[in-house]
Each structure stands twice: as structure tokens, then as C-alpha cells.
Amino acid sequence: MGGVAFSTAALIIVLSVFNGLGDLLRSLNTTFDPEIKVEAVKGKSFEVDSVFLQKIKAIEGVETVTEVIEDYALVRYRDADIVVTIKGLSDNFINQHRLDDHIVEGKLRLRENGINYAIIGRGVRYALNITVENNIYPLQVYYIKNAKASSLDISKLYARRDIEPGSVFSIEKNYDDNYIFLPLAFAQDLLDYGNKRTSLEIKTKSATASVQQELQKLLGDRFSVLTNEQQHKDIYKLLKMEKLFTFLALTLLILVASINIFFSLMMLVIDKKKDVAILSAVGASPRLIRNIFLSEGALIAFLGAGIGLVFGGTICWLQDQFGLVGMGMENSLVVNYPVKLNPLDFLSISAVMIAITLLISFYPASVAAKSFSTEDL
User: Fold this and answer.
1) Given this model, what pLDDT does residue 374 score?
2) DSSP class of residue 172?
3) For residue 165, what are the domain limits?
4) Helix 273-281 × helix 286-322 angle, to 10°
5) CA nearest 29: which of 209, 322, 250, 233?
6) Average pLDDT of the residues in 21-33
7) Are residues 122 and 187 in the same domain?
8) Is 127 in the same domain as 189?
9) DSSP single-letter state for residue 214
10) Burial 242-281 (b: 16+ CB within 10 A, else e)
11) Within a 10 A sphere around the Cβ of 83, how many other Cβ atoms?
12) Are residues 21 and 39 in the same domain?
């Protein structure tokens, strides 16, 4: 019973950690990426005009449509430079409030009083040693043009624009080290994109799934309309696979541990040989005897699984409330391991534990019912 309880608790704790990690990933992705993203199926960019945008905004449930120009560029600050991904965003990006709680320095803004400002990832800020407050140096952004390499004028090979560092965001290391947000007009001028956009980011005010369907119907096969989870489907698929294989691996361990139950019941059958014979003598049917030993197995299964579920759930609750186990890293996104209890996990684990234990119990019970009779007295 203790083995069943311990195995059940271990399963609950491990699966709850996977649930917590999944929620953590979703919170990070919904911060950085939009609820719905529209991209061209073929090609890097697509044409956008006021009529096109108006049709999208007319769809019920669409709240904000942010135009995006995204590409690689070289940024230089004083004597240091690195290659980053720049995202040119229309002014209404601020209204989506995705970065409100993640600004660690400066003021969240893309344009103010006619001045363009860059929103910089914290990793980029450290790499270039950028000063945001009381800054006297501009951030230089270089973009390589599609000019012929044989051109004698080097200035024709790239475009350069200067911009003021306005604020610093911190979400997750991968984003912090690689991204800079810029005003759309600035990126449009630097990259010479005209009315082309690489994507549209949409915030909804109703059910995302229904808005996605209406958008796909409007835009047709030339565009892909992706929800936030679909934008990161590979990560979530990998997490689900890891959770599934972990569940199966621990179930195999439980199956191995359940062999102890099998031998315990077999020993019980041998030990109770005379008692079973007496029951047979006074009229107990083989079915009754089998049910007695099956009840013993069921008692181990139900009590062990119940104790394990309560114990595992308690450990997860304590972890969530008080942080019993930390991540062990100074720069981790969260201080303690994230956990989330899922009722479906409790049901599936209970079903597996009870099924395994009852199957293990069936053979000893059958042996007890068939092998002993009044001749053993």
C-alpha cells in the first residue's frame, strides 16, 4: 500500500510540474506574441492598404490590428554592435498592453513629441551597455540593402538610421537578447518597405477561435491565421510528448513495483490455505473466495492510490504556496518550480493505479479459488 501511495504521489507531482511549465510558457508567449497573427503563406511580406485593414477591423471580435515589419539588422551603440531582430510596430501596439508589466527601465513608448524611441531587450541593453536615462548617444540601426556587391559606393550597400533608446523590457532570455521594438514608420523608412508588412498582430475582444475562423474565411488560402498556441505548436507538442512519455515511464515503474503486491497476495494465499479450505467446507463458493482476495487487492489499490493522491496534491499545493523547491538559478524566470494541479491527471492516475493493482490481484485470487478444497484440511 505504501508503494502504491508513493508511486501515485510521484506521478501527481511530476505531471503537475509539466502543467506548471506549460502555463509558464503560455504566459511568456502571450506576452511577447499576439493572440492572433496573420502571415503570408508564400513570401516574406505582403501588401497592406487602408481597405485591407478596414475589412479586418470590420470582423466582429477584432479589437486592435497592429502592423508589423520584422527583419534582422545590425545595431551599434558607441563602440559596440550586435545583430538583432527588429520589429517595427504601429503606434497602437502600446494599446495592447503586452509589455506593461515587463518594462524594467525607462518609459514604455514608441513615439512621443515627434521623437522616435526604441524598446530594447535587457540582453541587448547589457551587450551594448546602453544608457536609457539621460542618454546623449543615439542607437544606430543598420540594414543591408539588396544592392550589387560590385558597387563602388559602400554607402549604397546599407541604410542607417538613428533612434533614441526609450525603455528596456525583460520577458525571457531568448527575447531579451535578440529583440528591439521600433516605430513602424522608422522601420518602414530604414528597410524601404513602403506599404509592405511581414505580419499583422491582432488583439481580440471575444472568442479567439471564432475570430480566427472569420479571418481565415476573409483572407483565404494566401494567408495563415495563427492563434498564440499555433504560433508555438512545436514547443507545446514537445511538452505534451514529454509529459506523455514521463507518464508511461512512471507507469512502467509502478507496474514493476506492483509485482510486490502479486507476491504478497500469493504468500497470503499460501498462508491462508487452511482458512480457505474451511470456508470451502462450510459452503463458500470459488467465486466468493476469489472475491475475498480481489477485495484485498482492491483495498491496497484504493487506499494506496487515495493516500498518494492526497499526499501528492498536498506537496504540489505547498510548492505553489510556499515554494518548497527552487529553480536553483539566479536568472531563472520564476524563483520556484511552477506547478498546476489538473483534475484530469487525478482521474487518469487513479484509473491506471487501480487497473494495474486489480490485474495483479486477479491471478492470486483465481489460484485461491481453484486450488483449495476440503481435502486440504
Assistant:
1) 42
2) -
3) 34-228
4) 130
5) 233
6) 86
7) yes
8) yes
9) H
10) ebeeebeebbeebeeebeebbebbeeebeebeeebbebbe
11) 10
12) no
pLDDT of residue 128: 94
Among residues 212, 228, 244, the one where a domain terminates is 228
Pick from 160, 168, 94: nearest CA to 124: 168
pTM: 0.77
Q: How much is the average pLDDT of 149-168?
A: 79
Kindly tell me if the per-residue pLDDT of 376 is higher than 70.
no
pLDDT of residue 258: 77
Q: Indicate the number of domains in the chain.
A: 2
Classify 109 as helix, strand or coil: coil
Q: The dihedral of CA 130, 132, 138, 143: what is its sign?
A: positive
Residue with cell 507545446: 236
Domain limit, last residue, from 196, 228, 260 = 228
**Residues 83/178, Cβ–Cβ less than 8 Å:** no
User: DSSP label at 198?
Assistant: S
CA distance 266 to 364: 5
pLDDT at 231: 92
Output the DSSP codes for 42-97: SSS-EE--HHHHHHHHTSTTEEEEEEEEEEEEEEEETTEEEEEEEEEE-GGGGGG-
Same domain? 264 vs 351: yes
Please provide the DSSP assignment of 15-53 as one string.
HHHHHHHHHHHHHHHHHHS-SEEEEESSSS-EE--HHHH
Give per-residue pLDDT as tens, 32-66: 899 999 999 999 999 999 999 999 999 999 999 99
User: Which helix (H) or strand (E) element contains residue 296?
Assistant: helix 286-322
